[in-house]
Design a protein that fits this description.
Elements (H helix, E strand, L loop, with lengths): L8 H7 L1 H14 L6 H14 L3 E5 L2 H11 L7 E5 L5 H8 L3 E5 L10 H7 L4 E4 L11 H11 L2 E5 L7 E3 L5 E3 L6 E5 L13 E5 L2 H11 L3 E3 L2 E2 L10 H10 L3 H19 L5 E2 L14 E5 L4 H10 L29 H7 L2 E4 L7 H16 L1
Parallel strand pairs: 2-3, 2-4, 4-5, 5-8
Antiparallel strand pairs: 1-9, 6-7, 8-9, 10-11, 12-13, 13-14
Helix pairs in contact: 2-9, 3-9, 4-5, 4-8, 10-13
């Protein structure tokens, strides 16, 4: 049995080695390291895959969120509704721009922002909602967009963990997550379902004027070189990353299929256990399993984490401290926010190895060890 990893990037690379090596060498030989032709061709292919008019590449997923909020013209003191149960990047950029994060609950089943609580969090200062498609499952975008339309709010989708996820509306219409809100953002961090070999990100929208502004902000606020119309930043997807991602994009559906197969194996092993809750599937979301996350009830979560480590099985706790309890948000008095479901989840969730190269002997070993701990 191969050694276990949370994500086995080396094995994935070996399958595409010849293509990727040739693509990278092509960039080296051309020396077009910044804004080379592969950046344009990749973003065009990604736009077609996601069904959006515009994809603006950038340096990472955090920049994508920041640039999105800058382009919408949000001002200091404006309120942005966001889940607390998410990676800190989602909420960090809100505070960085001197906006006010308003932390709300997630649905205990989906781990995504709960539309039922959004309405009660809206005030005259509310300007945007940031739903996070966490662990590979879509937030309830149909309900979120109804609320946003009713209150004239922007919706910025944090799609870093769910690229490729299909969302099905009640009328049967299907869209990719990231293409539904005002702006969608994503990350190409190596462990993502579509990951590069370094940092990278992208912003997507169907609004022509907004796309132009997003491009300007990502490029020092300029349309024409040395003529800076607005305050921007320097956030680019380098050509080598674009070349790698362009090779990997046609394989994304296969990657998703592999992850879903791994999830089905885990489901069969744990689905009937009284102390283990397997990931929930909503009728509107095709879960793409960036993570496979269990909820434990009546089991020592940290004890299982340590036990698995002793068995050479990696596991992760996403996320042990929710955003509203992070020290960086003390000035917002966020620690006084009552988010019982979020706090409950942070004490009970654990994620198992999940990637495209997992083999049956590895899965048998992982599930047998988890069950050995759960049944003792």
């Amino acid at each position: 049995m191969r050694p276990l990893q949370m994500v086995d990037l080396k094995q994935q690379y070996q399958k595409l080695k010849a293509e990727i090596d040739a693509a990278v060498i092509g960039v080296l030989e051309s020396s077009a390291f910044i804004n080379g032709p592969q950046v344009q061709s990749f973003t065009k292919a990604l736009a077609a895959y996601n069904g959006v008019k515009h994809v603006i590449p950038c340096a990472n997923g955090t920049d994508a969120l920041q640039i999105a909020m800058m382009a919408l013209g949000l001002q200091p003191g404006d309120e942005v509704i966001t889940p607390s149960f998410t990676y800190v990047a989602t909420t960090e950029v809100i505070a960085l721009l001197k906006l006010t994060p308003v932390f709300v609950e997630v649905d205990a089943n989906t781990f995504c922002i709960d539309p039922k609580v959004i309405r009660n969090a809206i005030t005259p200062k509310t300007k945007a909602i940031v739903p996070v498609h966490l662990f590979g499952q879509a937030a309830n975008m149909e309900e979120i967009m109804k609320i946003a339309t009713e209150f004239n709010l922007y919706v910025i989708e944090d799609n870093a963990q769910a690229i490729g996820c299909d969302y099905t509306f009640l009328d049967g219409t299907m869209k990719k997550t990231g293409s539904i809100g005002t702006i969608g953002t994503t990350s190409f961090f190596p462990s993502k379902n579509l990951g590069g070999y370094g940092d990278g990100g992208a912003i997507m929208t169907n609004d022509d004027d907004l796309a132009e502004k997003l491009k300007m902000i990502a490029n020092h606020g300029q349309k024409v070189r040395y003529y800076h119309e607005i305050v921007g930043c320097n956030s680019r997807l380098d050509t080598i990353q674009a070349a790698v991602l362009e090779i990997k994009l046609p394989h994304l559906e296969d990657y998703i299929s592999s992850r879903r197969s791994v999830a089905s194996f885990y489901d069969k092993a744990f689905g009937d256990h009284s102390k283990i809750t397997i990931p929930f599937r909503t009728p509107y979301s095709r879960h793409v399993f960036n993570q496979y996350t269990l909820i434990l009830e009546g089991l020592d979560r940290n004890g299982l984490h340590d036990y698995l480590a002793a068995q050479n099985i990696p596991s992760m706790i996403y996320y042990p401290v929710p955003a509203h309890r992070q020290k960086m948000f003390e000035s917002f008095n966020s620690s006084n926010t009552l988010l019982a479901t979020t706090d409950w989840l942070t004490e009970r969730v654990i994620s198992l190895p999940m990637h495209t190269e997992m083999e049956e002997d590895q899965l048998n070993y992982i599930t047998s060890r988890v069950l050995a701990f759960a049944n003792k």
